[in-house]
Design brief:
Keywords: Signal. The protein is mainly beta. It has one domain: Neuraminidase, CATH 2.120.10. It contains five helices and 26 strands. It has a nine-stranded mixed sheet with strand order 7-9-10-11-6-5-4-3-8, with no helix packed on it. It has a five-stranded antiparallel sheet with strand order 1-23-22-21-20, with no helix packed on it. The radius of gyration is 20 Å and the shape is globular. Bound molecules: 2-acetamido-2-deoxy-beta-D-glucopyranose. 2-acetamido-2-deoxy-beta-D-glucopyranose binds next to loops. 2-acetamido-2-deoxy-beta-D-glucopyranose (NAG) binds next to loops.
Length: 440
């Protein structure tokens, strides 16, 4: 621990010298912003935001420490939307098993998946609680530490392929399940996907029911003996461009072929690539680059899955974690950690540590949002994004200082335009996922 701290400190100092991009250092390492307990755009945090977990669940079986959330669209046979459910990946054991930030003490207690039904627009009745998903046929003795997840829509009530990145004991793998709308609390295990290219998979986004892009957050992982104590930290802090995004095509589970039919590198030489998301139109991919406080946008060829061109890089005022498009709009929601030392203190279990949350929305295709210099934007937010970064404008959807009653360590946010609901997950938050009702 002391070694780890010393190395982290040295790396931190080195990085200040090395790294000339002042924004990242200033915004995410040196200065802590003065956030309120809770702010949600166009609603009231105090009256419109609720945790979706059930407070009577036991601590080991509760919905807390949630990394990713994703919508599951239930469509009719013609592809028309009927209902949208929320899935969440949570791991109450994250404090003793986290392959990204440490530690690696005890992989035994399982994490879990949850499903939640968003309330109708304008409904004022008490929101329902999320339900825990049972994993049917899951191999005995196989760990489950879910991180990034995504699910294909269901058409006319058919089952959906669900993929979940799992930071298991020996290596990180991707689990494939089937989930059917007639029984949304039972995910049937299909198979475990392994690959030498799954070095540190973090986030995935589907390009068909049987293919996806997956980001690897580091080349050096904490699993490496001894080196794992400091190489990943140096890789993060110095923003070394060593990692990559893959595209994976799978065989059908019933065929005798190898599980992974094809692997291609979609993007190489990236520093800490994290959340990845395919746009609803299928022609754009957004990728969060955590250690550079940037979101990269790529043009995609839907026929070949090649990322043909990097169109732009947008600076965000925090270390971005996950990104998600809002369906039916051109909006990308970016969620992250405004102060890196604070989240480290939370991971290290420092008494009283809290780490803030920040969610912004970016419209990458709006010409009016193009590079404007150090303009003023986002002025409704308690801490406006324009007080931290220049360039593309963005709008704050959510902020919290992470203190008691707020939400700490926000990792993913999603908006459902139909119900107006905003969901925010907290990687190390005791309440896991908070849902904010819209008053629009
Ligand atoms: C459900 O139907 C859709 C649309 O036909 C199809 O793409 C998908 O593969 C089906 N799901 C499964 C698990 O077979």
């Amino acid at each position: 621990m002391t070694l780890q701290r010393t190395v982290a400190l040295v790396a931190l100092i080195l990085s200040v010298i090395w790294y000339r991009s002042g924004d990242v250092i200033q915004n995410s390492i040196l200065f802590k912003s003065d956030f309120p307990v809770g702010y949600v755009a166009k609603s009231s945090y105090a009256t419109d935001c609720f945790p979706i977990g059930n407070p009577t669940d036991t601590p080991e079986e509760s919905l807390k420490y949630c990394e990713d959330i994703a919508f599951w669209d239930l469509l009719d046979n013609a592809g028309k939307a009927e209902q949208r459910l929320l899935l969440a990946s949570c791991d109450p054991g994250r404090r003793s098993w986290n392959t990204v930030m440490g530690p690696l003490h005890d992989p035994k207690p399982h994490g879990a998946l949850w499903v939640h039904v968003p309330p109708e627009r304008g409904s004022s009745s008490a929101p329902t609680k999320a339900q825990r998903i049972t994993l049917k046929n899951y191999p005995e003795g196989h760990d489950f530490h879910p991180l990034g997840l995504e699910i294909y829509p269901s058409y006319g009530g058919n089952s959906s392929n669900l993929y979940v990145i799992n930071h298991a004991r020996e290596r990180s793998v991707i689990e494939q399940f089937l989930l059917n709308p007639s029984d949304p609390t039972t995910a049937t295990y299909i198979r475990t996907l392994t690959s030498p290219y799954f070095i540190s998979p973090n986030s995935l986004t589907l390009t068909s029911p049987d293919s996806f892009y997956v980001s690897n957050d580091h080349l050096f992982t904490r699993r490496l003996p001894i080196l794992g104590l400091f190489l990943p930290i140096i890789e993060s802090i110095l923003a070394l461009p060593l990692s990559f995004v893959s595209h994976i095509d799978l065989s059908s589970p019933s065929s005798n072929d190898d599980t992974i039919l094809k692997h291609t590198f979609a993007s190489l030489f990236l520093p800490f690539p994290n959340g990845i998301s395919l746009s609803p139109s299928g022609t754009q991919v957004a990728l969060a680059v955590t250690s550079q406080n940037k979101v990269l946008f790529y043009e995609r060829d839907p026929a070949t899955n090649v990322l043909t061109k990097r169109t732009h890089a947008v600076s965000v005022p925090f270390c971005p974690d996950n990104v998600r498009w809002t369906h039916g709009t051109d909006e990308l929601i970016v969620t992250g950690h405004p102060h890196f030392p604070s989240i480290n203190a939370v991971v290290a279990n420092t008494k009283g540590a809290a780490s803030a949350s920040w969610v912004v929305s970016i419209n990458p295709n709006d010409a009016g949002d193009k590079l404007t210099g150090r303009g003023e934007f986002d002025l409704d937010a308690p801490v406006p994004a324009s007080s931290k970064v220049s360039g593309w404008s963005m709008t704050t959807l959510f902020q919290s200082d992470g203190s008691e009653g707020g939400l700490m360590t926000s990792s993913t946010a999603l908006k459902d335009p139909k119900s107006g609901v905003l969901y925010v997950s907290g990687l190390y938050d005791e309440r896991g996922v908070v849902m904010c009702r819209s008053v629009e």
